[in-house]
Every structure is written in structure tokens, then in C-alpha cells.
Specification:
With 240 residues, the protein is of the alpha/beta class. It has 8 helices and 8 strands. It has 2 domains: 127 residues, Aspartate/ornithine carbamoyltransferase (Rossmann fold), CATH 3.40.50; 74 residues, Aspartate/ornithine carbamoyltransferase (Rossmann fold, 3-Layer(aba) Sandwich), CATH 3.40.50. Helix 1 crosses helix 5, helix 5 crosses helix 6 and helix 6 runs parallel beside helix 7. The chain is globular, with a radius of gyration of 18 Å.
């Protein structure tokens, strides 16, 4: 199974199958166990990772840098404002330079197209640490938390109340791939991206689960096994 992931980008959960999602959760659980008992797991010693964060971050940045260190790697953190990108250098040129010096790139930015452009011009893996469309690492971590606390993911009902953007959309995709009902409550006039809704509804249908977007908070919360609340301002939409 692990050979499926060798050199593969991590841009969105939509790129992975249910079997691959479960495998990633199992591996994450094992690494967490080793971390808790202080068991060394520097399997990637000698590797380097570039971290380019266009958006501010506390939890994502420090969790990545801690994990990178635990795995024995060296991270190099930067922002586009301190790179030649700020002077107009094309992404493809920056990507090629990072590809020569580093074994992977972790990027946190606005457009999903930016992440995909880096992936296009790099041979080493690109990891999405958040875009406006999706937050796959957060989604995977949330699925692991649900499995830890509920004993399983399949068969639960997740109720999400908050903004309909990256975290919400990653949870919708993750739920649809793991057999969990997902109810998303958002204000009238606001909705997740159509590409995500279509994917999530199609995969939920295949697995006989529910994928519902509504403005009825009480209906979303009714009978929920997991409640996920999020801010309405994380993406800067102050007019909500």
C-alpha cells in the first residue's frame, strides 16, 4: 500500500480512495502512538522540506514543523513576501528551484490553482496546508479524532455549523469517503463549492450515506454523533 503514496502530491482528499484514507489514518495513529511514548521515528533523516506560507498560521505551522522534526527532517520556512515571488518571479521558476534544494514542499496559500501549479512543475511531493477550497490535512486529522473518540467513523452523523469553505469542504469529502453522514448548516445564500458538493453527494450515494447542505441548524444537529463548529470569518468574508 505504501508504494501508492511514494512521490504523490497531497492536494485534496478527492484524490484518494476510501482504502487509502483508512491507510493514512492507520499510519497517523501509529505515529501518534510513537510520539506519545517518546519512541524515535526519524525515518526520513537527512531529508529537507520547504514551507511556503502565504497565510498566517499557528496550529498548522507548528504541527508541521514538529512532525517534520520528529521524522528527522529539516524544514525551511518562508513567505512569498520574502522570496523572489514578491518581485514577480513566476511560480514555475520558484517551483523548479525548490524542487532542486528540497525533498518536498508544504504550501499554505489562497488559490487551489496555486498549489496545483507548484505540483505541476515539481517532481517532489507538494502538500496542501490550506487553500480557500480545501484543507486536506485538517480534514484527515479530524477524521482521526472522530475515530479515536467514537471507535469508528462509519455510521456516525457529523453535523457541521460554520462557514462553507475549506475545512467544511474537506470534512464533506472525508465523510463521503468513510461512510459517515454529513449535515452542513450554513446561512441562506452561502454554500460549499459545487465541485465539492457534487463529489461528496456522488460518493455518499455510493455508500448509502447522507450528504445534506441546509440552513436549518436544528435539523443538522438533530441526532448528531459529532458536532463541528467553525467561525464565519476565517476566510475574511466580513459581510456575513
Amino acid at each position: 500500500m505504501k508504494d501508492r503514496f511514494r512521490g504523490k502530491d497531497f492536494l485534496t482528499l478527492m484524490d484518494y480512495s476510501p482504502v487509502e484514507i483508512r491507510y493514512m489514518l492507520d499510519v497517523a495513529q501509529e505515529f501518534k502512538r510513537m510520539r506519545m511514548i517518546k519512541e524515535p521515528h526519524d525515518y526520513l533523516k537527512g531529508r529537507t522540506i520547504a514551507m511556503v506560507f502565504e497565510k498566517h498560521s499557528t496550529r498548522t505551522r507548528f504541527s508541521f514543523q514538529a512532525a517534520i522534526a520528529h521524522l528527522g527532517m529539516q524544514s525551511f520556512y518562508s513567505t512569498p513576501q520574502t522570496m523572489q515571488l514578491a518581485r514577480g518571479e513566476p511560480i514555475k521558476d520558484t517551483a523548479r528551484i525548490l524542487d532542486r534544494y528540497c525533498d518536498s514542499l508544504v504550501i499554505r496559500t489562497y488559490g487551489q490553482d496555486v498549489v496545483e501549479e507548484y505540483a505541476e512543475y515539481m517532481t517532489n511531493p507538494v502538500i496542501n496546508a490550506l487553500t480557500d477550497l480545501t484543507h486536506p490535512c485538517q480534514g484527515l486529522a479530524d477524521l482521526l479524532t472522530i475515530r479515536e473518540h467514537k471507535g469508528k467513523i462509519k455510521g456516525n452523523k457529523l453535523a457541521y455549523v460554520g462557514d462553507p469553505w475549506n475545512v467544511c469542504q474537506s470534512l464533506m469529502v472525508g465523510s463521503s469517503l468513510t461512510g459517515m453522514d454529513c449535515y452542513v448548516a450554513v446561512p441562506k445564500g452561502w454554500a460549499p463549492a459545487k465541485v465539492v458538493v457534487d463529489f461528496a453527494e456522488d460518493n455518499a450515494k455510493k455508500r448509502g450515506t447522507e450528504m445534506v447542505v441546509t440552513d436549518d441548524v436544528e435539523a443538522a444537529l438533530s441526532g448528531a454523533d459529532v458536532v463541528y463548529a467553525n467561525t464565519f470569518h476565517s476566510m475574511g468574508h466580513k459581510d456575513i
